[in-house]
Design brief:
The chain is an alpha+beta fold. The protein has seven helices and eight strands.
Length: 204
């Protein structure tokens, strides 16, 4: 229901309704889609599921604001050229995100230049790129292609993640596509390897 309708139904002002919805969103129990509405999450939040979930990693607000280290435009990296045909440049954001005071991820986000104006530095310090692409840029995200590998941390990655150089890091390359199959974003991120535990079930 809309916030105003919820407030009227319970005989309260809109402010506590908004605070309650923010709390439910922070727990991963609801998802807000700008211009569409508020929905019950389709997947269990991290606290309920008891395992690392992509929703928990990429859709929630950052409890500790991320640091935006650099942003601008760059030639399309060779590794992404096939996903962004016809484009010569992409906008990029180098970002360091935290869990509490501990560095959590470091890397570069890439988006088409037409999205750059909507991605303010303030928003980039608070929200994951998936959420911003959907809610601020109007991208109808349909799927993401992930490549995950263990990689030795170079000096730059080790510095920002506060780990020893050449120690293992989790390298994650992702390209995100809209419903028309066009790439709307990508990121090349590194994470400290030690917090990750992956649990899989597969049909046979």
């Amino acid at each position: 229901m809309p916030e105003l309708a919820l407030a009227e139904q319970h005989g309260i002002s809109v402010m506590p309704v908004r605070q309650a919805l923010r709390a439910l969103e922070a727990e991963g129990l609801i998802v807000r889609r700008r211009g569409s509405g508020t929905y019950v999450s389709e997947t269990l939040p991290l606290s309920v599921a008891g395992a690392t979930s992509l929703e928990a990693l990429y859709s929630r607000e950052f409890a500790t604001p991320a640091s935006i280290l650099e942003r601008g435009n760059t030639a399309v990296p060779p590794m992404l050229a096939k996903h962004f045909p016809g484009m010569e440049t992409l906008s990029f954001i180098r970002r360091l995100a935290f869990r509490g005071e501990t560095p959590w991820s470091y890397g570069t986000l890439y988006v088409p230049a037409r999205f750059a104006a909507q991605l303010t530095t303030d928003l980039l310090t608070r929200y994951p790129i998936y959420r911003l692409l959907a809610e601020r840029c109007g991208a109808e995200i349909a799927r993401s292609h992930f490549e995950v590998k263990a990689a030795p941390a170079g000096s730059e990655v080790a510095h920002y993640l506060a780990i020893e150089p050449v120690s293992p890091a989790l390298a994650l390359m992702c390209v995100t596509f809209d419903k028309q199959g066009k790439a709307v974003g990508a990121f090349d991120m590194h994470f400290p390897a030690d917090p990750f535990f992956f649990s899989f079930e597969t049909p046979h």
